[in-house]
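>> received
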Amino acid sequence: MVKGQMSKIYGHERGIIAGVDEVGLGPLAGPVVACAVILDPDLPIQGLRDSKATTEKSRRELSILIRLHALSWCIGRASVAEVDEFNVLQASHLAMCRAVAGLSIVPNKVLVDGNKVPDFPMAAEAIIKGDRIVGQISAASILAKVERDAELVRLALTYPGYGFEHHKGYPTKKHMSALSELGPCPEHRRSFAPVRRALERVTCS
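>> returned
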């Protein structure tokens, strides 16, 4: 396969296939957001690839096309409270299951980016680097990324000073500095060590 080339979208010959991906495992704040997408094999979308390999402008443009032309798509979330209660991996599985459950069409099979499969009620397969080679997973990756980024921009309006609109909750130098100066906000993940340490400093001061 040529580098950067997307594989054929799984279509009718294998039944109805949904692609699933999530974003938000690494950030210190905000929810985990997942998306499930069933693409229409008869309406191919050009330019699908891993959301991390596209520009913000391209992701927004592709997200519009995916929402318009996909047979079905759904966003699923796991809250900060669920991340802290279950751990971030289990929370991501919860978000992915919610995304699949919300599809208006029940797929015959689900293709998941990565090496672990959540407990879906239908056949599923994990594909390592699937967001690079499977159209459905790439589309799910793009929608999830655009949705979560937008949520963090809105979060920045509620909790100014942390720079959520820029780093989207990831542990950048600016975020770590703000966390140290301001302490955690309600949308910070208490189960993550940097947040826990910052909370302890505020409690002890």
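>> Residues 1-8 have pLDDT under 50 and may be disordered.
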